[in-house]
């Protein structure tokens, strides 16, 4: 006898109608408890990698458009009620957020440890081979590149969408998008088109740390001690350095002085980690620390982005850290003619400044000499390139990536794939 909540009898005047189903249908992953009437929701066993959007479509908004319009109306109304007001909340008033300064330093240190660990795993004595396609951005971790037909580069139709593999580097495993450096993120939040060769560019994650409180000698930035004022929507700064004789001319990019980059140290130098040097650390320990640094950097960057604005183009992967996007006409994505080459800025996510770069997961590294078959691609899992590289080196699989890596799936042989349901 089915439970009472599954089938319902509707009584009307003159009799009862036949049994009809309830409004709420049963889903494939809903299971009824024995002896109870409440359904138990089971999680979907596998989480597929989100498919990239079409090139001519805009990225989905992080915040709904109705919420953005309501915020804009509230800000305009507040500006009309108080044309001259002092901004109270950081970082909009030019001050740092006190409890996020330490977070920014942790993210900066995690980034340095991550780059050092990836260099050791890719170029060290027990280096893990990395392959990259010659015509597209596809990356594969393993001795032999896969045979999955996903290439979309030039003349891919003549190759049946097969990749042409070549040796890869650390930049192929993890590539940070670059953005313009802002000397004064409140007084001059935008870079115009004529300054595109004057203002330096740096990784967006590093610029986020600098704006949140990290001091880097190569990229100076202005630190305020008093909040700024907003007069009819324009920022007015009454904090003048009369003792140094500074003026508004010093805020122009031409007046900034950027010291030369520090000399590169040799790769033979050893770094001390705890009580042991980097040479004494095993590959398994190095991979675990590298993976943990990557997770810490992403979680810390997500915390910083809740306060410090980061925008991205809705049609291309360009990003800009700051309250507003730059005005450099460098967008070549869809509909760029309508915008005169300018970007269509919108709110960014942590995946925009720290791309995941998913790769196919190899279940059995010992049998890596056989490439992945295109017929069996639905049995293979995927993982971010950094996670796959560290797992191949001996690091434990993170909990949040076990579902998409499909660790409990055994792919059939090439001559058996048509026999599997």
From TrEMBL:
It comes from the Eukaryota. Residues 132-218, 312-399 form the APO domain. Pfam families: APO_RNA-bind. One of its GO terms (molecular function) is RNA binding. InterPro entries: APO_dom. PROSITE patterns: APO. Residues 240-273 are annotated as: Disordered. This is APO domain-containing protein. The gene is LOC125513943.
């Amino acid at each position: 006898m089915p439970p009472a909540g599954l089938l319902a009898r509707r009584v009307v005047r003159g009799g009862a109608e036949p049994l009809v189903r309830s409004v709420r249908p049963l889903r494939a992953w809903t299971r009824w408890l024995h002896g109870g009437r409440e359904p138990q929701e089971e999680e979907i066993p596998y989480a597929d990698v989100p498919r990239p959007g079409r090139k001519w479509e805009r990225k989905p908004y992080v915040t709904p458009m109705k919420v953005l319009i309501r915020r804009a109306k509230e800000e305009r109304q507040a500006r009309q009620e108080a044309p001259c007001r002092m901004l109270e909340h950081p970082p909009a008033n030019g001050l740092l957020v006190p409890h996020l300064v330490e977070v920014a330093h942790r993210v900066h240190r995690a980034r340095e440890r991550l780059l050092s660990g990836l260099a050791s795993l890719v170029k060290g004595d027990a280096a893990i081979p990395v392959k990259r396609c010659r015509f597209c951005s596809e990356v594969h971790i393993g001795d032999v590149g896969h045979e999955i037909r996903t290439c979309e580069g030039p003349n891919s139709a003549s190759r049946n969408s097969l990749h042409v593999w070549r040796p890869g580097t650390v930049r192929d495993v993890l590539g940070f998008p670059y953005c313009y450096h802002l000397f004064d993120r409140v007084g001059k939040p935008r870079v115009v088109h004529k300054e595109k060769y004057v203002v330096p560019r740096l990784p967006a994650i590093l610029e986020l740390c600098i704006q949140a409180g990290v001091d880097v000698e190569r990229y100076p930035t202005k630190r305020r001690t008093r909040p700024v004022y907003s007069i009819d929507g324009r920022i007015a700064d009454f904090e003048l350095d009369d003792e140094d004789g500074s003026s508004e001319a010093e805020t122009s990019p031409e007046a900034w002085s950027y010291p030369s980059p520090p000399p590169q140290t040799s790769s033979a130098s050893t770094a001390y980690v705890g009580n042991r040097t980097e040479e004494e650390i095993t590959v398994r320990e190095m991979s675990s620390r590298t993976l943990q640094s990557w997770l810490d950097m992403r979680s810390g960057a997500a915390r910083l982005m809740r306060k410090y604005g980061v925008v991205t183009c809705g049609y291309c992967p360009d990003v800009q850290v700051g309250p507003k996007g730059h005005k450099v006409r460098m967008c070549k994505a869809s509909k760029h003619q309508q915008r005169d080459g300018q970007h269509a800025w919108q709110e960014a996510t942590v995946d925009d400044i720290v791309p995941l770069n998913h790769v196919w997961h190899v279940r059995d590294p010992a049998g890596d000499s056989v490439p992945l078959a295109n017929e069996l691609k639905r049995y293979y899992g995927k993982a971010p390139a950094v996670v796959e590289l560290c797992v191949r080196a001996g690091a434990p699989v993170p909990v949040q990536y076990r579902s998409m890596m499909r660790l409990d799936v055994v792919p059939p042989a090439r001559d058996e794939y048509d026999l599997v349901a």
